Amino acid sequence: MRWDRLFDDLEDQLASEWEAERAALDTEAERLRLSRVALREWLEAIAGQAGGATPSIELVDGTVLSGHVEGVGADWIALEPSGSRPATLLVPLSSIASIGMAHADVLRSARPAATARSPLADRLTLGYVLRDLVRRRAGVALQLATGRLLTGTIDRAGADHLDLALHDPGAPRRASEVTGHRLVAFSAIAFVRVEHPTALV
């Protein structure tokens, strides 16, 4: 009888040790997985969620944007701003300083992605989207990291910069309306506001 109790105690102890070791391994595996999650992947987890998270995004210039993340490209996000006329903001990932969200949304977005990431999204760079805006002759407002706002039409988009014809918002891009030109480095852009979202890719 005494030996039976001893074996039962040893089995219980061994089972407890196995369970503790497995929990420690699971915890370490989760820490390792989270250590590999990039900001872009986190944003992909909340992109396009109807009625989902509405993050507050602070940019390096101090601007705070609030809205739904509608899409994620290779180095940018498309944000539909809250409480304003229909528009889409193209925000380079490099201009994001911090993101504020409810704790439950942060935890939900940290879960592994349920669907595989599109390989096309990895190739859709900010330059690619800006070249599409050139083709469509869409009017834009460029918020620079310095805080300056430029409005006009993008004439050309290169590898790391764009050529902006300056004119009043809403005005057509005609020679008589253009007040000047600016070459703007992509690295200087805080965000690009496109008044007509249908102009996007």
The oligomeric state is: single chain
Shape, per Cα inertia axes: elongated
Percent in helix? 25-40%
What percentage of the residues does DSSP assign to strands (E)?
25-35%
Strand order of the largest sheet: 5-1-2-3-4-10-6-7-8-9
Give average pLDDT, whole number.
82
Q: pLDDT under 50 segments (min length 5)?
A: none
Topology at a glance:
Blueprint: H1 2-35, H2 39-46, E1 56-59, E2 64-72, E3 76-81, E4 88-92, E5 96-100, H3 103-109, H4 126-136, E6 139-144, E7 149-157, E8 161-166, E9 180-185, E10 189-194
Antiparallel strand pairs: 1-2, 1-5, 2-3, 3-4, 4-10, 6-7, 6-10, 7-8, 8-9
List keywords for this structure.
201 residues; SH3 type barrels; ten-stranded antiparallel sheet; 30% helix; 31% strand
Description:
There is one protein chain. The protein is of the alpha+beta class. The protein has a single domain, classed as SH3 type barrels (Roll), CATH 2.30.30.100. Helices cover 30% and strands 31% of the residues. It is built from four helices and ten strands. It has helices spanning 2-35, 39-46, 103-109, 126-136, and strands spanning 56-59, 64-72, 76-81, 88-92, 96-100, 139-144, 149-157, 161-166, 180-185, 189-194. The protein has a ten-stranded antiparallel β-sheet with strand order 5-1-2-3-4-10-6-7-8-9. It is elongated. It starts with a helix and ends in a 7-residue tail after the last strand.
